[in-house]
């Protein structure tokens, strides 16, 4: 009997939307989760080919003498120049895409989730079968980020939000929307999507 390939489902949402919390609920249901942003950081610190390309584009200072990623230096270079943002994305996102494909082939589940903040912005959503967007009011998102990361002020958070696709646009592009405000329960919304994706997978794969 041939192994059925799992459906590839993306889960995204702007900063402070709560996509990681939602992903954890899916994880409790037994669904494998690929945390793209965490893997990107790991690859930037461990993938020798990617490390070499980062050094070639941003200088040897991108890494410390101990070989660790110089996050402060790189962040200053990238966020101060839109062209540098484009360059780092062009280096990191293909590496993450290849890493995800390799990971996905080893999973045994009706569907798997790829959690990433910039699925639509990078175009990586095109390699996925369905997209879930976690949506929340802007003021609530800002207050959540400030509560979990007191070092960031509202100006810094808004600068990150400005680089992300507006929630309304993401909702139009997404196949499923989870509303993570303060007046809707998360678990029933997740369960409804979980049932839809599980049964859809059975139908698609016979």
From TrEMBL:
Gene Ontology molecular-function annotations: ATP binding; dephospho-CoA kinase activity
GO annotation, cellular component aspect: cytoplasm
Q: Which domain of life is it from?
A: Bacteria
Q: Name one Pfam family in it.
A: CoaE
Annotated pathway, please? Cofactor biosynthesis; coenzyme A biosynthesis; CoA from (R)-pantothenate: step 5/5
Recorded hits in Gene3D superfamilies, A to Z, give: P-loop containing nucleotide triphosphate hydrolases
User: Chief localization class?
Assistant: cytoplasm
What EC number(s) does the entry state? Answer: 2.7.1.24
Entry's localization field: Cytoplasm
The reaction(s) catalysed by this protein are: 3'-dephospho-CoA + ATP = ADP + CoA + H(+)
Specify which residues bind ATP according to the UniProt entry for this protein: 16-21
Q: What class of enzyme is it?
A: transferase
Alphabetical GO biological process terms: coenzyme A biosynthetic process
Q: Which UniProt keywords apply?
A: ATP-binding, Coenzyme A biosynthesis, Cytoplasm, Kinase, Nucleotide-binding, Transferase
What task does this protein carry out?
Answer: Catalyzes the phosphorylation of the 3'-hydroxyl group of dephosphocoenzyme A to form coenzyme A.
Query: Which family does this protein fall into?
Result: Belongs to the CoaE family.
Name recorded for this polypeptide: Dephospho-CoA kinase
Q: Which organism is it from?
A: Indibacter alkaliphilus (strain CCUG 57479 / KCTC 22604 / LW1)
């Amino acid at each position: 009997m041939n192994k059925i390939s799992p459906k590839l489902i993306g889960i995204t949402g702007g900063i402070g939307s709560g996509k990681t919390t939602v992903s954890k609920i899916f994880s409790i249901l037994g669904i494998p989760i690929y945390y793209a942003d965490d893997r990107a950081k790991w690859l930037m610190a461990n993938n020798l080919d990617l490390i070499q390309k980062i050094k070639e584009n941003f200088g040897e200072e991108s890494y410390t003498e101990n070989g660790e990623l110089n996050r402060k230096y790189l962040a200053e270079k990238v966020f101060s120049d839109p062209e540098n943002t484009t360059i780092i994305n062009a280096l990191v996102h293909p590496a993450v895409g290849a890493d995800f494909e390799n990971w996905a082939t080893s999973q045994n589940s009706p569907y798997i989730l790829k959690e990433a903040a910039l699925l639509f912005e990078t175009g990586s959503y095109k390699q996925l079968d369905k997209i879930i967007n976690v949506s929340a009011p802007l003021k609530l998102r800002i207050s959540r980020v400030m509560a979990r990361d007191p070092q960031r002020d509202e100006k810094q958070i808004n600068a990150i939000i400005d680089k992300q696709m507006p929630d309304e646009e993401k909702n139009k592009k997404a196949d499923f929307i989870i509303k993570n405000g303060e007046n809707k329960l998360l678990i029933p919304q997740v369960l409804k999507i979980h049932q839809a994706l599980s049964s859809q997978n059975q139908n698609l794969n016979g």
